[in-house]
Amino acid sequence: MKRGLLLIDRGSREREVSEELEVICKEIKAKRDYIFTDYCFLEVEPPYIEDVIKKVLKQDIDSLTIVPYFLYPGRKVKLAVFEVMKFQKDTDVKFVVTKPMSMHKTLINLVENRISTSLENNNISISKKNIDVLMIGHGSKDPNAQMSLNYVVDGLKEKYGNVSRCFLELEHPDIFEGIKDCKKNDPEVLVVVFYFLHEGAHVKTDINNDLKPALEKSNLKKVCITKHLGADEKMIDLIIERANEVEGAN
Description:
By secondary structure, this protein is of the alpha/beta class. Helices cover about 45% and strands about 20% of the residues.
């Protein structure tokens, strides 16, 4: 069967987001025998779903694997799937939709790698039990989104002294509250994890607008900050695994 693969991302005006998606599509294409791999945005910035769908359906494919490239299930994922599936009735190409990038052990491993890399970059070599971790997520009104972040938090708890989470917006604890709670434990080292797919405006600007003053006020002993998840090899393998789950049934 001749297949194509399409990532649907939320969308961003930041150049780095498109660059990361281009890398991901290229790496997936290198690992699998797709006729093409491409991406589009749900909102904010072109390429939009409608434009890319019209383009990819001109390709010689029998099936299109659609990947909602979101860390959380919820309204945005449902909207992305709804918008793309509107085109199914006008084509003989079979659409199959994967799960989003949530509730999977790969995400726990990826975050652990980000933590380890941050510690190495800061020349810190101590027992994990003396390290606390604070994960910063976006925040959502959908309860499934919080469940997805809690899954990663719970997966890390056995290895570190304390693991907690806070949110950039929409939910509590916010970043100021999250840092304040971390201070109560007086950790030897606190690692702050940016739990975001891309280096968009949230990672570049919005988080730091709250995180920097919160850290200055806290007087924590030592704080390390990780990179976002990005175009990591583990994330690429997770996309392929999600694709395999639905392609095997069709």
